[in-house]
Recover the amino acids of this structure.
């Protein structure tokens, strides 16, 4: 049986760990504050949903399963026989106005991925 010879940096690390001294704490530098996070573009075929208000979504898809507000954001979730659609609404960045859809997520009822436009079409047909 052959025993490996420890390397010098490893031995130094072990000795430092056993020395009982703790390095002095230094204050952390300031964290950068991110600016506006860019939102990736969604498919053009979602144009009929983007920009709609909550009453317009309800008129199009019926009553939502979930209606959740957090801060300035608002999420409406619509469920059909084959898919779940989450529509995220936010007020305009400048000025006043109603919150409108800025982002959409879609998935099959079992959580599997699904084309968003297909889900929008399926939910529209069920009305």
């Amino acid at each position: 049986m052959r025993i490996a010879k420890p390397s010098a940096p490893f031995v130094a690390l072990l000795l430092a760990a056993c020395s009982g001294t703790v390095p002095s704490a230094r204050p952390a530098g300031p964290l950068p504050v991110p600016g506006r996070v860019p939102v990736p573009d969604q498919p053009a075929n979602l144009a009929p949903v983007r920009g709609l208000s909550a009453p317009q979504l309800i008129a199009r898809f019926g009553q939502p399963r979930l209606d959740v507000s957090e801060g300035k954001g608002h999420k409406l979730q619509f469920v059909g026989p084959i898919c779940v659609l989450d529509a995220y609404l936010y007020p305009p960045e400048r000025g006043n106005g109603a919150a409108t859809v800025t982002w959409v997520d879609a998935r099959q009822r079992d959580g599997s991925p699904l084309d968003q436009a297909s889900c929008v079409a399926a939910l529209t047909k069920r009305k």
